[in-house]
Amino acid sequence: MTDLDALDRDDPLAAFPERFDLPSGVVYLDGNSLGPLPRATRPAVDALLAGAWGRDLIASWEGNGWMAAPLRVGEAIGRLIGAETGSVIAGDSTSINLFKALAAALALRPGRTEIAVVADDFPTDHYIAGGIAGLLGRGHRLRAGAPGPETAVVLAGHVDFRTGRMRPMVALTAEAHAVGALAVWDLSHSTGAVPLALAAAGADFAVGCGYKFLNGGPGAPGYLYVAPRHQGVVPALAGWMGHAAPFAFASGYAPAQGIARFGVGTPPILGLAALEVGVGLALAADMAALREKSLRMSTIFMEGAAALGGFGCLTPADPDARGSQVCLTHPEAAAIMGRLAALGVVGDFRPPDILRFGITPLTLRYRDIGRALACLAQARGE
Amino acid sequence: MTDLDALDRDDPLAAFPERFDLPSGVVYLDGNSLGPLPRATRPAVDALLAGAWGRDLIASWEGNGWMAAPLRVGEAIGRLIGAETGSVIAGDSTSINLFKALAAALALRPGRTEIAVVADDFPTDHYIAGGIAGLLGRGHRLRAGAPGPETAVVLAGHVDFRTGRMRPMVALTAEAHAVGALAVWDLSHSTGAVPLALAAAGADFAVGCGYKFLNGGPGAPGYLYVAPRHQGVVPALAGWMGHAAPFAFASGYAPAQGIARFGVGTPPILGLAALEVGVGLALAADMAALREKSLRMSTIFMEGAAALGGFGCLTPADPDARGSQVCLTHPEAAAIMGRLAALGVVGDFRPPDILRFGITPLTLRYRDIGRALACLAQARGE
Q: Which of A162, A253, A274 sits opposite B130 (nearest CB)?
């Protein structure tokens, strides 16, 4: 057995778990569903409430940086995902951001009607895509499989939510471009978890989630990435916060320059304040060290589960095809997850038979993985 | 001069201003733009962070009522606006909610292409309407003026943001219905400020803002009202939170029954927690008393400003046509508003020449109105 205490001693990210406020006695392997509370979040949010809102009131839109928050937090996320400067805006839910991305991509490919999707991808992505296809209603449709001459846009989750498999962004983006289509990536399960290089990959659009590996809090705002070459498109969700001069209250819509035009309503300041703390923690960590710790942890967990016997594993053994979660299968998955929870190990059950464990290197120690494996042995044996 | 101290002594809502945390020495007449901080908000949000998020983590979605929050807060707002049970959902920005309402209304009137709007209404409403017209792109267009045979939907702000004029909801809704159109109301400047009876008025859809008279905090979630008879429409923004079984992760979209189907992404829990405090305060007040105090305050303010001379007034003298704000005009409006701010009186300048003062009876005392008038005299005279 690997010496987990030694790994913890040598861990260059060892200081990070101390920066989160986790209940004692709990091994939290659900940070890919809801990241835990950073210790800095409570004081940051309270300062926002008492100071910026309570004392400075309306003046905070300029004086305390509220107006700038969507682009400021977006810029920080952009550094995490290898985006060009000025190509990310934070705010709205991931689903709404996906709608914006798909509407823009379809507008850029007016002669094409097909949205190519990955079968079994995160369902809400397909619901949103189906919704916009229905709204456009000019023969627009979803089709699972490789893009073709009718394909306007390829929509794919980067890390599969059920299996933890990471799809090859460079290759799939190139495949889309080869047939004249655009690529929209859902980075919900990879932002803050794996190295990303959107600009280098040639991605066209991307969206991601603030409350998973970014630890931004329940229902945190999501984000939208638009490659600079596409930022001239007129947004379908045309709101005043994307207007060139929102406080001129002009009757005609004139979109702002750059990524700012993808703002819609008044930004969710409380959610953005909490998200900013989480993004800051992720940025403070070295991404290469984070990836190395993630893969080492998931390998230990997968090998340990295999040694127990009785579990299938949906997560690829190949590290290059692995995100930052481990998905086991077991006929009694739901019952085992319940017993694990009683032992203080929190993961997710996903129907029909999946035990999903988030590997969040910022918030976990190697010895947590050891304890999770010991509890898994116990939970299976009962 | 009215005895303002006597009015304060007799005010049935006198306890409410104590429940807000306003900076000392400030008369805040901008609660129609950003409502002030309720004293109960900081502890409520901190309990959410430390307890629900920090300690209970993912279990809070069920155990601490996070999943139910959009409908729970929506139901509370529904009581404020005279809506049927189960017809309001909170979440997303007002602009996004307006998009949902317009998309649904247009889907219910498939043969019609016109969105009738009010000239000079809140610009973002027109931007959003223009965006959806462009997205549909089958001859859809906006037209200012009375509805006609091509009109699918009439979109109107209930209280005009520039003038404080309140439009007659019953009459305008009936006018829309008379030509077979649907009525969509923007209640941003009336929710929590004036009595509303959506069900009785026969309104079809409505949206409103959480951070103005509801005191929900900067960028608070907005809300959407859908009359029960229209809740069968398939949402254009089809997200997993509107799915009949979001955690089944089914590949096909099957909308939930009732208002729940208008949920989209993961609800913004921090924002909803702060909004819930504000809505609770508004519900605790007697709406008839609130309206009476509002009208008495705005009358005192309008008469006082008229006595000063030099100001025009855009706000109707007729109380039945008045919302809960007073809009004065002056050639030097911007400079006067700046001097008022230096004297501790906070209002809004709106181009080109409007001084806008929010009358928020929950957070103001009559003597605040007296002080504002005294400062207005001073600011004008300099």
A: A253
Residue A105's Cβ-count burial label (10 Å; 0-12, 13-18, 19+) is buried
From B246's Cα to the closest Cα of chain A, the distance in A is 9
Within 13 Å and on the Cβ side, how many CA atoms surround A178? 9
Distances (CA, A) of A7 to A19, A293, A301, B254: 19, 9, 14, 47
B115 has which bridge partners?
A: B142, B153
- What's the ipTM? 0.97
The CA distance from B262 to B239, in Å, is 8
| Distance between CA atoms of residues A34 and B59, nearest Å | 10
Q: Say which amino acid occupies B342.
A: A
Looking at the partner chain, which of B60, B237, B253 has a beta carbon nearest the beta carbon of A218? B60
pLDDT tens, position by position, B176-216:
999 999 999 999 999 999 999 999 999 999 999 999 999 99
The whole-angstrom separation of Cα B263 and Cα A219 is 13
Q: What is the pLDDT of residue A382?
A: 55
Do the chains contact at A42 and B60, CB–CB below 8 Å? no
Closest C-alpha among B77, B78, B71 to residue B227: B78
Residue type at position A314: L
Contacts of A318 (CB under 8 A, 6+ apart): none
DSSP classification of residue A52: I
Span B262-273, pLDDT tens digits: 999 999 999 999
Q: Which domains does chain B have, with CATH numbers?
A: 4-37+286-381 (3.90.1150.10), 67-284 (3.40.640.10)
Are A309 and A330 contacting, i.e. CB atoms less than 8 angstroms apart?
no
Neighbours of B110 (CB within 10 A): 10
Residues of A in contact with B28 (CB under 8 A): 57
Tell me the percentage of chain B whose pLDDT exceeds 90. 94
CA B8 to chain centre: 26
Strand partners, A155: A117, A184
- Helix/strand/coil for B101: helix
**A5 residue type, one letter:** D
Assessment of whether the complete model's pTM goes beyond 0.95: yes
- Residue A34: its chain B contacts at CB < 8 A? 53, 57-58, 61
Which amino acid, residue A351? P
Question: Which residues, including other chains, have CB under 8 Å from residue A231's CB and lie 6 or more apart?
Answer: A87, A257, A258, A259, A261
In whole angstroms, what is the distance from residue A375 CA to residue A211 CA? 26
The three-point CA angle A227-A233-A237 to 5° equals 105
